[in-house]
Structure formats: C-alpha cells, structure tokens
Amino acid sequence: MSAVNVLSVQSHVAYGHAGNSAAVFPLQRLGHEVWPVPTVAFSNHTGYGAWRGPVLPADQVAEVVRGIEDRGAFAVCDAVLSGYQGAEDVGAVVLDAVARVKAARPGALYCCDPVMGDVGRGMFVRPGIPELMRDRVVPAADVLTPNHFELDFLCGAATRTLPALLAAVDDVRRRGPSVVLVTSVVTDDTPQDALDLVAVSAAGAWRTRTPRLPISPNGTGDLTTAVLLAHLLDGRDLADALARTTSSVYAVVAATAAAGERELRIVASQDRLADPRLEFPAERLR
Question: How many Cβ atoms from other residues are within 10 Å of residue 267's Cβ?
Fold first, then answer.
C-alpha cells in the first residue's frame, strides 16, 4: 500500500493526549504519514483548569503550513484534518490550507471535528467560532464529526428522536459534507447505560452502541475523528470504518477507566487501534 499523507492542523499538548497529541500517533499506528501543525503549544489540555504555553498567532500557523507547501507536499497530501480552532483567524488559515491542498491534489479530503461545545458545558469556544463552523467550515468539509450537541447547533434544532437526528444529518450533508459521524448520541431509544454513534453517507446510515463508561476523558473526540479518517483513507466502507473506530476508541477509553487514569491510554492500547476486535457491529438504519 502506498503512503497516505495527512496534514493535521490542531492544538498540541506536551502532557497527555488532546488535539494532535491524540490524533497523530493513532494515524501513524494505522500506517499513515502525518504532518502535524500546532495551533497552540500547551503544557496540558485545558480540562485541568490551568496550563502553560502559548496560543500561536494565525500568521505563524500559516507560515508553518506554507513551509510544508514549499516542499511540494501538497501534491501528495491525501487529507487535511482539523479540530479545535481557537480563533476565527486560525479557522481562516485552515480553510486556506484546505483550498491550497485541493488545488494541488484534487480528491484530497477535508475532515473536520467542529469543536464548539458539549452537553452540560454548553459552548466553550470563543464567540464567533460556532458561526464560523456553521457558515464556512461545514460547507468546505468532506467528513464532519460533530457530537450530538454540536449537530443540534448546526441544524438549529434539538434532536431527541432518531428520525429527527437523521433528518438533521441530512440537512448538514446537503450543505457540503459527504460523510457525517455524530458522536455521543443520546436519543429517546438510547438506553441510559449506553451511548450511540451514528454515521451517514450517500450509501446509507449506520449506528453503533456501546456501554456508557464512568469517565469522559478529554481528547476522545480527537481520537475518534483520527481513527475514522484513517479507515476511510484505507478505502474501507463507512459501516466497516464505523465499527472499527467504535471498537478501538471504546477499548482505549475502557483501558483508561480500568487504569484509573485521567489521560487516554492511547499508547498502551495501540494494539487495539491496529487490530480492533469489532465488538460493536454497525447496525444499518436505512
């Protein structure tokens, strides 16, 4: 198999796993080359409430991207991956990078985790970021991975039933993304002790369901998006990619809970990334 190359523009933390620090190693473990571009260089993720290190100015992020472009790398770039975008001008840099990559490599994917907020926390990004995601980023994305809370914002309605959630995903897909994965799904038919993931493309819609674990560590969404992208780049169909992603991510979070750790046990669980046990098959919804 020829090398698959991913430009990943996300936050970086030195301690623990979030942003690129949760995405790069899984992509590499699954056989892909990654060019990580940091948007912040923090000591640790912000879930601790205290951290050190700089937010990188948008022009410096752009300079790193341009340096990669100078090497001729965009002509062999298969995907751009983005997550948390700390400011609108950084979001503009990401969108410019996507346009440049696609100009050099038609067919390259843009995979975006539209980080904005979550149930119980509300919006936790700067004002203007949710609107940027809705109005500019979603139309540019090929693969979008919102959580349930973020999907509701993007479609402008609370989705409590599975049909309503699928209708919301269809609405978002009409704006640009061909593939949408919704994480942390809870509808009226989700058992209290479970969580669902729902993935939709032109080929259909599928759901996986896992037991609800007692922890919700930072970086899980970054890990999920990276693993899904890796499987899609390998040419797997969406149902298979969803089942593999669900099984791998659940294994990592379960290992984290069993160890009593706060940070994702990604390195310790790497064999489950490379060889998922497919414990959670994808159920076809339509």
Answer: 12
DSSP letter for 270, please.
H
Residues in contact with 27: Cβ distance below 8 Å, sequence separation at least 6, in sequence order: 6, 8, 34, 81, 226, 229, 230
CA angle (251 as vertex; 259, 42 as ends), nearest 5: 65
DSSP-derived letter for residue 284 is E
- Burial (CB count <10 Å: 0-12, 13-18, 19+), residue 159: buried
**Residues composing the chain:** 286
Minimal CA–CA distance to 258: which of 219, 213, 224, 227?
A: 213
| pLDDT beyond 70 at 2 | no
CA distance 230 to 234: 6
Residue boundaries of the structural domains of the chain: 5-284
**Tokens standing for 121?**
């926390």
Tokens of 53: 């290190």
CA–CA distance, 257 with 165 (Å, rounded to integer): 29
Q: Are 154 and 134 in contact (CB under 8 A)?
A: yes
Q: Cα Rg for the chain, rounded, in angstroms?
A: 17
Over the stretch 54-73, which tens digit does the pLDDT of each residue have?
989 999 999 999 999 999 99
Question: Mean pLDDT, to the nearest integer, of 255-272?
Answer: 97
Contact by Cβ (8 Å): 83, 11: yes
CATH class, 5-284 region = alpha beta
Mode of pairing for the β-strands spanning 194-201 and 204-211: antiparallel
One-letter amino acid identity for 206?
Answer: W
Confidence of residue 121 (pLDDT cuts 50, 70, 90): confident
What is the rounded end-to-end Cα distance, in angstroms, of the chain? 32
Strands 179-185 and 143-144: parallel
